[in-house]
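Posting this for the archive.
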Amino acid sequence: MPNDTPVTLAAVIGAHGVAGEVRLKVFADDLKPFKAFNNGALTLTSLRPTPQGAIARFAEIADRNAAEALRGTELTVPRSALPPLVDGEYYHADLIGLPAVSDVGEPLGRVVLVENFGAGDVIEIERTDGKRFMVPMRPEAVPEWNAERLVVAAAFASA
């Protein structure tokens, strides 16, 4: 993935209170290292984690009406702003769009979604006929991935 590609870290799901704070659905482990979002259009001034996500204040949002107008806005940063990864780690954004092949070389389709239902990440792959199947992102199911492709063990690819 190119370093300037925007990566979504959170989304505004509504206003909070009357002073311009917003409720966020957070997709990252931690938003605190980031101060500017959406190419500098939003400057984070405060952030409070909640069980459902976070409450944030942005310098550019002065009241509830402005906060409500942000509902549905994705908060993005350039890929280059993300911390470096160690071996075995990945960003969901890096997997989306990768071609998927079986470990015997059979083309399977493309990664279209990465979900986490609590027990670990699950990769959703769309075949060329539009049908989709899911694979757990565990070494026995996905023994290898890189910037060019994602390899799925044949036993998991027959879904």
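The chain has a mean pLDDT of 92. The first helix runs from residue 64 to 69.
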